[in-house]
């Protein structure tokens, strides 16, 4: 598929979407043929295809894999070997995904034309929205978009998150003016690597243009909430800038200063007064409706782990502004769009776009089998058009950039079809127990870091009896909480031995140091996760937890302590038995 075929906008984009979804089966088969034609001779694929370019050979011989199996091939390219190890096209960059492998960031190969596929999906969003909310071209979008730190692979390829790659690309920077995608934030603010300067200026630009703003958003709900919290701390400075027509001295990035001085043409004391009066209100309930009175919807990912932020966004919008989830995407591949964008976030289904990659599905019984360690036989895979509504699947992709039958790790439930393209509810990321921002910590990683940390206790005759965890998003930013039950091994009589604060703080520190790369990046660099907390609970708490869960229908024979807890009775029980809380006192180590 050449890039030109992907350049659809407006009504054209919708017509093309109809065609694609009506011909979903044919499109998928031709995508697979094209991928095989291009990548069949690559070292990886040829190992299985052995010279064949046949779709049926692919289907019977190419194994279903996880990251660990493809990682050595990706690493060789990152080290400077030829792209033909994986792909018939030049690998132009490595996309750092939020998944980690052995604590290290995962790198996904990407080719130049992947940018066209991403743009194709972005171009569908506004035509879809326009069907439900007209006149979105009569105002602006205040989208808080950020780039993240990037590095180079040993061979000099850029290694960065997919959105950073997109915002830095000419597809974004040199986009032609489109009234449907007119942002309040200047590019310089989005592309400023310093998060505080970027956030300050994006909020300032949004406030100055508050009467033009028709939609508010961020990619993930967590980022939007952090921006609101930033506004809470900085509105006095922002109002001062608007009143005086000067830009705060803390904005030192020269291109950003220049761009912002263009946006703030003259002092505006009246606007500053209006904003101040709103920010001084006793409660910030509904603040978004007051500050941006013409907003018709708020856009952010609120499905999957981001659903935990729905109540907070409803608070700031007083439940009056629709919350819209438009798309489902990853570093490996952009997957699909929400064709019914005004539905409530918990009801969202994404329609997979058959031209993005070749999609297959591992059927899952009970929602979550088989485990990620289990080998999946090729003949178990179900193709895109054959999924059954109501059933659960794990998503498997074969991409143009060289991932073949790669398990993305997402668990989806088929809910229906748009023409012949299936629609899915995002259920969860397999094995992920904790997530605040883009971090995804699985049970194994959590266990490993608990094991490393509890060793510190043992030197003081203290033993960790049981633990569980919770993602606390009542603070902004949210933070990881571990509930620990500790016993004293030197004397059982001494139950109430005072806990040594420094020791427990060291344990918090050790936990953070052994969590994955993305967690440490969010904590230390992006500050999008707060310090980890250990809540030490009274002895006997985990027995009480077991009693509670069994009384709720759990089986006593199969009982296992859950390694994470969601809000509800179990959490209340744990919180009611907390002896003391301890926090990590410095940022964990993080190197690019
Ligand atoms: P990354 O590889 O870091 O780009 O993260 C991609 C992952 O984020 C996906 O595989 C999903 O687990 C998650 N994700 C992306 N979009 C959505 C969405 N709309 N709803 C829920 N989870 C999502």
Write structural notes for this entry.
It is built from 20 helices and 22 strands. It is of the alpha+beta class and 592 residues long. The chain has a domain at 433-583. Strands 9-10-11-16-15-14-12-13 form an 8-stranded antiparallel beta sheet. A 4-stranded mixed beta sheet has the order 2-1-5-4. Helix 11 packs across helix 13 (269-279) and helix 16 (443-458) runs antiparallel to helix 17. The longest helix has 24 residues, at 221-244. It is globular and about 70 Å long. The protein starts with 9 loop residues before the first helix and ends in a 9-residue tail after the last strand. The structure holds adenosine monophosphate (AMP). The site of adenosine monophosphate has 17 residues, from strand 1, strand 9, strand 15 and strand 16. Adenosine monophosphate is lined by residues 97-99, 162, 301, 303-304, 325, 328-331, 408, 410, 426, 429, 438.
């Amino acid at each position: 598929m050449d890039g030109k075929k992907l350049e659809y906008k407006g009504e054209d984009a919708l017509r093309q979407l109809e065609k694609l979804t009506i011909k979903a089966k044919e499109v998928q088969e031709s995508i697979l043929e094209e991928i095989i034609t291009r990548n069949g001779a690559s070292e990886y694929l040829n190992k299985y295809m052995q010279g064949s370019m046949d779709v049926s050979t692919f289907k019977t011989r190419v194994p279903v894999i996880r990251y660990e199996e493809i990682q050595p091939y990706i690493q060789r390219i990152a080290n400077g070997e030829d792209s033909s190890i994986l792909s018939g096209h030049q690998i132009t960059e490595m996309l750092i995904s939020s998944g980690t492998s052995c604590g290290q960031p995962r790198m996904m190969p990407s080719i130049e034309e992947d940018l066209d596929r991403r743009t194709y999906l972005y171009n569908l969003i506004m035509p879809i929205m326009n069907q439900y909310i007209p006149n979105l071209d009569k105002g602006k979008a205040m989208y808080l978009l950020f780039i993240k730190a990037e590095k180079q692979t040993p061979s000099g390829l850029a290694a960065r998150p997919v959105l950073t790659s997109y915002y830095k690309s000419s597809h974004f920077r040199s986009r032609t003016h489109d009234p449907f995608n007119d942002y309040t934030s200047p590019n310089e603010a989005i592309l400023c690597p310093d998060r505080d300067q970027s956030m300050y200026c994006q909020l300032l630009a949004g406030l100055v243009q508050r009467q033009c703003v028709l939609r508010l958003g961020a990619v993930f709900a967590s980022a939007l909430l952090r921006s609101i919290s930033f506004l809470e701390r900085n509105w006095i400075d922002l109002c001062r800038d608007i009143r005086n027509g000067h830009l705060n001295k803390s904005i030192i990035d020269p291109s950003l200063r220049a761009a912002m001085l263009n946006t703030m043409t003259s002092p505006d004391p009246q606007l500053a007064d209006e904003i101040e009066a709103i920010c001084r209100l006793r409660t910030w309930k509904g603040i978004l409706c007051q500050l941006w009175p013409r907003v018709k919807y708020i856009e952010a990912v609120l499905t999957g782990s981001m659903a935990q932020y729905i109540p907070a966004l409803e608070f700031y919008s007083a439940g009056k502004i629709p919350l819209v989830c438009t798309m489902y995407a990853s570093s490996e591949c952009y997957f699909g769009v929400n064709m019914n964008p005004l539905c409530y976030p918990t009801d969202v289904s994404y329609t997979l776009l058959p031209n993005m990659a070749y999609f297959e599905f591992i059927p899952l019984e009970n929602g979550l089998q088989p485990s990620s360690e289990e080998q999946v036989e090729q003949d178990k895979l179900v193709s895109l058009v054959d999924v059954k509504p109501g059933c659960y699947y794990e998503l498997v992709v074969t991409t143009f950039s060289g991932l073949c039958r790669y398990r993305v790790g997402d668990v989806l439930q088929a809910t229906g079809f748009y023409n012949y393209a299936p629609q899915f509810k995002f259920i969860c990321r397999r094995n992920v127990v904790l997530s605040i921002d883009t971090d995804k910590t699985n049970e194994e990683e959590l266990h490993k870091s608990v094991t490393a940390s509890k060793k510190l206790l043992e030197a003081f005759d203290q033993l960790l009896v049981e633990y569980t965890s919770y993602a606390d998003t009542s603070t902004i930013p949210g933070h990881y909480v571990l509930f620990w039950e500790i016993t004293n091994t030197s004397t059982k009589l001494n139950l109430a031995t005072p806990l040594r604060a420094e020791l427990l703080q060291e344990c918090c520190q050790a936990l953070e140091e052994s969590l994955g790369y993305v967690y440490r990046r969010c904590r230390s660099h992006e500050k999008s996760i707060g310090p980890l907390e250990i809540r030490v609970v009274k002895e006997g708490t985990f027995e009480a937890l077991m009693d509670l869960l069994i009384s709720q229908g759990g089986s006593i024979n199969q009982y296992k302590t859950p390694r994470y807890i969601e809000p509800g009775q179990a959490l209340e029980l744990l919180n009611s038995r907390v002896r003391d809380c301890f926090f990590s006192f410095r940022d964990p180590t993080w190197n690019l």
